[in-house]
Amino acid sequence: MEASQVLDSICQEKAVAIVRGVLSKDMTEVVKALKHGGITNVEVTFNHNSDQGMANTLESIRGIKEEFGDSVNVGAGTVLSPREVEQAVGAGAEYIISPNTNVDVIKRTKELGKISIPGALSPSEACLAWENGADIVKMFPAGALGVSYLKAVSHSLSHIPLCAVGGITVENVEDFLKAGIRCFGIGGNLVSPEIVKNGEFQRIQEEAGRYRKVLERY
Predict the structure, then answer these.
(1) What is the number of other CB atoms lying within 10 angstroms of the CB of residue 113?
(2) pTM
(3) How far from the centroid of its chain's Cα atoms is residue 170's Cα?
(4) Distance of CA 151 to the CA centre of its chain
(5) Contacts for 59-66 with beta carbons within 8 Å, 24 or more apart?
(6) pLDDT tens readout for residues 197-210
(7) Which residues have CB under 8 Å from 126's CB, separation 6+?
(8) Which residues are known to be catalytic?
């Protein structure tokens, strides 16, 4: 899928499911549940604690693209270096998400024709990311920063699409939308290793549907 189409999908759907700590063998069932619940943008995060964890991320991304094709947009998360950008894109990642503002990561992502979503904490970092080619800027950790803070930032930087990540729940997502946030990364409140380990895929589908119901109103 073209990068512009992937970006449109993220902005229109307003949600990216963050999948962290899930084994590649369980990924198909997780993504099926998310898709049936109405979320088709999935971020698989890098685990920097071990080589095996890093390899699992790449295997998961590759498996999702092979299984779901263009019906699901898959990205890599916690991407910290240009080398990791290259590895993720090589596995099939269509967007690159980071917790920080790393100009080299942004530039390499754009050189490879993919969507860049770096993380920022302050207006200065958000502007730096945007000026260097970011397509969306991820405000992280949103729950700790709070709605009032993000409202002030989004109103001042209304030309920059902001994504809130960290502590986003069905109960507070509407508050962030009203504050000017364009889209969300939703992690443990939607998919957690414990839920997957217990095989509660129906629960993932139902929770995805709850988020979808709120987001569709905007």
Answers:
(1) 10
(2) 0.97
(3) 16
(4) 20
(5) 59/24, 59/91, 60/19, 60/22, 60/24, 60/27, 61/88, 61/91, 61/92, 61/93, 62/91, 62/92, 63/24, 63/27, 63/28, 64/27, 64/28, 64/31, 64/92, 65/91, 65/92, 66/92
(6) 999 999 999 999 99
(7) 101, 120, 137, 139, 153, 157, 160, 162
(8) 43, 138
